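Before the break, one more example. Copy the sequence into your notebook; we will annotate it together after we see the structure.
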Amino acid sequence: MKIAGCGLAILLVLPAGLARAQEQSAPSDALSPAEAARRAREAKQSQPKATKTFDNDTLPKTPGGINVVGEAPGAIDEAAPGAPAAAPGSSPAAASAEAAAAKSKLQNLKADLDSLKRKYDLDSQMYYSKPDYFTDKSGQQRLDDEQAQINAKQQEIDEAQRQLDAAESQAKTSNQAGEAGGPNTETPPTNPNPPPSS
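Here is what the structure looks like once it is written out:
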């Protein structure tokens, strides 16, 4: 009877001891959600960025437009200060390419501005959610810096819009000049009812 009682006690204590050992080892194996997210970000940053390969299938197809990979030949760099404007007699293709480049630049600037505004909104919410936000001088300085970046990006967008308008106007006048002054390639109309031969 004594042996049976000891055996029963061992059977009851053994699962409790195993459970306690598993509980002690579990916290070291399990990651907190913050730690898991941090490790995932580090792993993502260490991966090489994928390069985009352009071929006939992946080039954007715009009707009547010119698709260019890389820098357009003969295009004027809008970022260069004092860059000369396109000559009035420039070809319609070059004017269209310049307009397309200006439009692409404007779209990129607008995307950058949107990103800056989103970051500012998030940082602003974090800053003003603190009860003692007015004592956080570095947080206020960061918000001021972000607002200055937004204002500078908006000025870049305004300048890019002016360049786009000028490039589109140039392309339009260049196309009109090409249509008006180009060689006449039309065939003369044929008379559907020729005079009877005598």
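The longest helix spans residues 137-181. Helices lie at 2-29, 33-46, 92-128, 137-181. Try to locate both features in your own notes.
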